[in-house]
Structures are given as C-alpha cells and as structure tokens.
C-alpha cells in the first residue's frame, strides 16, 4: 500500500496536478487584491483558497505515510510543510497579518518544478563563494563612501553630507539608478568628479557584481554535472537495486567465460 501511495505522489501527472493547483491558488489570491472582483466573487475565491489548502495538506499527509522517516530527510519536504503550516495558523484577531502570508504557497512551485529546484540548489551551493564577494563589495562601498563624504560633502550635502547618506547614494549609483544626475550635481563644483564616479562604477558594477554572476554560473554547472553523474529519475533504493542487478550480470558473464574456457559450452566437435 505504501509503495502504491508513493508511486502516485511521485508520478508525473500528480506533480502536474499540484502545479495547476498552485497556479490557480496564486491567481485567486491575486484577484482578492482587486476590490471589484473581491466584492463580486469573494466567496468563490475563498472556496478556491480553502480547496487548494486541503489538497496541499492531503499531499503532505500522503508523503508522510509513504516515506515515513525519509520525509524529514528531504529539505524540500520541510520547505513545503512550513509553507502549508503557515496557512493553517488562525488569521483572526492579532494574527490577521498572517493572511497576507498565504501567497507564500506560490513558492511551492520551487519544490515541485525540477528546473526551479535546480536553480535554488545552485544558489545555495554558491553561497560560500558569494559571501566573500559580499565582503569585498562592502569594503569597496565603505572606502568610496568615506572618500565621497570628505571630497563632495560640501558640494552636495543632501547626497554626501554624512557617511550613511554617502553609502546610500553610492549604492544607488552602483545599481545605475539616476547616477548621471548625481554626478552632475557634484560636477558643478568639482568638474573632475567624473573620474571618481567612473572608477567606482567600473569597480563595483562591472567587476564585483559580475563576480556574483560567475560564482552562480559555476555553481549551476556543478549542479548540472552532479545530476548527470547520478542515475536519471532514480531514488536511492532504485539506484541500489540497479547496481545489484549490474553486479549479478557481471558475475554471470564471468561464469560464462569460465565455462567457455573449460570447453563446457563448446558445441559437438565435427568428425
């Protein structure tokens, strides 16, 4: 019975059904934010929300029944359980703010769709390398912030009057948001300020931020390589049984080769 339930919850059609339920639930929660739609079809949208929640709870219970202790060893199962648990918390009284967290159920697409799951796994794998780049970027921002405060604090006090203001302005410059006007405001009194802004953008945007992309791409390549190295679509039990079958075939081949050497499998000799 457990094997049959496990086969159902891991089947392709069942996963496609869960994806459809997630998308419909996300669309219903989005329509609730439209006042005219909520006033006219509020009861229907609420019924869709409750039905989707029941489906998610039934899916989790089926997985717990089929996988038992293995359910807790899969991080994606824990992720799904936490999202569904948030939706089960009563959202009345002081906890009414939790109603807005129901949209978190749309994040279950990450655990259901394999391609999204690979992207998130690659991002998590890239975290150690990204932490070093974050420290480097923070150091560049701090050094540039101190320099900008001392050099241009008097020319543009609303942008570089203090260190926190300078850090925010430089972060805005790093993202490319209206940095041209920021530079022109300073260049009215400091014509050579373009050198500072050009050097800062080259270092922070075109070098440091591209390092983030390089680390993430490298992690995604490693994730794809590890997937290619594993048996496609097989779990631990299936992979172990496959290896056992291959070992038995290798043993049979050795026995056949030994019988041929002894002449046991030779046909009748022609006179």
Question: What do these coordinates show?
Answer:
With 271 residues, the chain is an all-alpha fold. The chain has 3 domains: 2-112, Four Helix Bundle (Hemerythrin (Met), subunit A), CATH 1.20.120; 135-225, Helix Hairpins (Orthogonal Bundle); 230-266. The protein contains 12 helices and no strands. The chain has helices at 2-9, 12-31, 35-67, 70-73, 75-88, 108-112, 114-152, 157-160, 163-174, 179-187, 193-229, 236-262. Helix 7 packs antiparallel against helix 11. Mean pLDDT is 81; it is low at 231-237.
| Range of helix content | over 70%
Strand composition percent: under 5%
CA radius of gyration: 30 Å
* Rounded mean pLDDT score: 81
Helix/strand order, N-terminal first: HHHHHHHHHHHH
Task: Briefly note the CATH topology name of the largest domain.
Answer: Four Helix Bundle (Hemerythrin (Met), subunit A)
Low-confidence stretches: 231-237
Structural class: mainly alpha
Name of the CATH class of the largest domain: Mainly Alpha
Question: Could you provide a short overview of the structure?
Answer:
The chain is mainly alpha-helical and about 270 residues long. The chain contains twelve helices and no strands.
């Amino acid at each position: 019975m457990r094997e049959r339930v496990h086969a159902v919850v891991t089947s392709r059609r069942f996963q496609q059904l869960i994806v459809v339920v997630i998308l419909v639930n996300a669309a219903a929660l989005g329509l609730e934010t439209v006042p005219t739609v909520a006033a006219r079809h509020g009861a229907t949208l609420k019924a869709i929300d409750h039905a989707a929640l029941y489906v998610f709870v039934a899916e989790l219970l089926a997985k717990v029944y089929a996988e038992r202790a293995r359910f807790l060893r899969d991080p994606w199962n824990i992720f799904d359980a936490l999202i569904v648990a948030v939706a089960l918390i009563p959202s009345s009284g002081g906890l009414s703010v939790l109603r807005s967290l129901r949209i978190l159920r749309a994040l279950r697409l990450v655990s259901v769709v394999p391609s999204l799951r690979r992207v998130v796994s690659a991002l998590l794998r890239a975290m150690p390398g990204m932490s070093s780049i974050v420290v480097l970027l923070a150091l560049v921002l701090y050094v540039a912030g101190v320099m900008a405060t001392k050099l241009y604090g008097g020319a543009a006090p609303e942008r570089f009057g203090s260190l926190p203001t300078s850090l925010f302005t430089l972060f805005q410059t790093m993202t490319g948001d209206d940095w041209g006007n920021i530079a022109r405001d300073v260049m009215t009194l400091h014509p050579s300020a373009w050198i500072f802004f050009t050097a800062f953008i080259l270092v922070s945007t075109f070098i440091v931020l591209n390092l983030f992309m390089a680390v993430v791409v490298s992690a995604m390549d490693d994730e794809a390589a590890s997937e290619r190295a594993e048996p496609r679509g097989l779990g631990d039990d299936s992979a172990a049984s496959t290896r056992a079958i291959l070992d038995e075939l290798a043993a049979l081949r050795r026995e056949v080769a030994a019988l041929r050497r002894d002449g046991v499998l030779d046909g009748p000799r022609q006179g």
